[in-house]
Amino acid sequence: MAQTFFKVLPPQEALRLLLTVEAVGEERIPSVKARARVLAEGLHSAVDLPHFHRAAMDGYAVKAKDTFGASQSLPAYLKLAGVVEMGREATQSLATGEAMRISTGGMMPPETDAVVMVEYTDEVNGPLVEIHRGVAPWQNVIQIGDDIKKGEMVFPRGRRLRAHDLGALTGVGISSISVFKRPRVALISTGDEIVDADTEPLPGQVRNINQHSLAGLIEEVGGELKDWGVIGDDRGELTKAIGAALEWGDVVLLSGGSSIGAKDIALETILSFPDAEFIFHGISIAPGKPTIFAKACGKPILGLPGYPVSALVIFDLFAAPLIRRLGGESVETLQGFTRSVRATLKTNIASQVGREDYVRVTLERESDRVIATPLPSKSGAIFTLVKADGMVRIGMNQDGLEQGEEVEVILF
Q: Quick one: pLDDT band at residue 28, thresholds 50, 70, 90?
């Protein structure tokens, strides 16, 4: 039966199938609570920002023409007509040859069109302001609508909001927004060989690595996590756990049980559920080939390999985009890598034609270039991921990369 199930796909096709899932739903929340959430609507500004001309520097509000030609050796002299108070409307108009003291962010008085920076001024007796450098019209001024104009798009649907985006929303008066719900991600670890971190493992046993790393990664990409813990290699217990996970979650992640060993029962268990659909079992990739993707009860189930490096690499490349897609991000956004850098390869890397290889590397700066040094590639060696700064992808039709070649490093 295992041979029947082992259906291997190229990585691009596997990702395409994963991203056919639909977002899990929408809800309305206060803008100030929306960090890391994905917009379910396009937002447009109902106002100009700023809605008045504002000083961009501390100094003196002036009519620019009154300062033309001013220099250190031949300063211009303007009459000090007052001070602009912060948070108050500036209503006093200035006559020709007058200036008004103003702070950054203050409202420009009527008919003024520039700010002379305080560094280029001195107040002298009179009271007069001595101007040592002339300014052009609208120099050191943020004009009405300079930041964003009324009717202009603030953010498009599908954008994952960052912390400083929230200030932009409140700046244009958007106090509540429609966002996609956070997808509920059920995590199930499997294997009789897995023991807790505070347990001394016997020969043949290993401490639990995947569960804790995957839990953190799920939350990093916007998932709402519920961890079912470790389930032993027991068909009945696994069926019970997957059933409960399907009832609660929008997606189920299985860690372990995806290869074709005699005790790997995950796929058979998944297919025992109503409306179960087998999509693929295997991706032409290393590490992480024995990855399962199926659906049951209308919900996606992704089975990750048990080896720690394989599991975490597959999470970055496939599980993270799946969760982010369920959370409302667009397919186009998820096709590429989030962060990468160009680097020069320090040593040769061998690869096998017919699969994509992802090789962990460290990065260091040498003179005017970045050097990528490959790390050992054993998929059970978790510390190669800890020490690595990123991964280099070797394409399916390549038999390796050569020392000195420029490569793209996918950053962790």
A: very high
Give the whole-number percent of the chain exceeding pLDDT 90.
70
Q: Is residue 158 classed as helix, strand or coil in its secondary structure?
A: coil
Give kind and range of the element (H or E) at residue 267.
Answer: helix 266-270
First-to-final CA distance of the chain: 37
- Give the chain's mean pLDDT: 90
Which DSSP letter does residue 92 get? P
pLDDT reading at 263 higher than 60: no
pLDDT at 187: 95
Non-local CB neighbours of 289 within 8 Å, separated by 6+ positions: 8, 282, 283, 305, 355
Helix (H) or strand (E) holding 26: strand 26-30
DSSP track, 101-142: EE-TTPBPPTT--EEEEGGGEEEETTTEEEESS---TTTTEE
pLDDT higher than 80, residue 389: yes
Kindly give the pairing relationship between strand 141-142 and strand 184-190.
Answer: unpaired
**Token digits of residue 84:** 């602009």
3-state secondary structure of 386: helix
The rounded Cα 83 to chain-centroid distance in angstroms is 45
User: Residue 97: its pLDDT value, please?
Assistant: 95
Q: What are phi and psi of 230, to 5 degrees?
A: -100, 125
- Count other Cβ atoms within 10 Å, centred on residue 288: 26
Nearest to 109 by CA among 64, 68, 53: 53
Alpha carbon of 310 to those of 24, 285, 380: distances in Å? 28, 10, 8
Confidence of residue 46 (pLDDT cuts 50, 70, 90): very high
Q: Tokens 């993270």 belong to which residue?
A: 320
Can you tell me the distance from the alpha carbon of 161 to that of 40, in angstroms, rounded to the nearest whole number? 11
**Cα maximum dimension of the chain:** 97
H or E segment and range at residue 169? helix 163-171
pLDDT at 337 over 50: yes
For residue 27, count other CB atoms closer than 10 A to its CB: 12
Phi-psi region of 145 (alpha: psi -120 to 50; beta: other; left: phi over 0): left
- The mean per-residue pLDDT over the stretch 267-296 comes to 90
Share of the chain above pLDDT 70, in %: 91
The CA-based angle 178-182-187, given to 5 degrees, is 175
pLDDT above 90 for 141 = yes
Q: How far is CA 138 from CA 135, 164, 184, 295, 392, in A?
A: 8, 27, 51, 61, 49
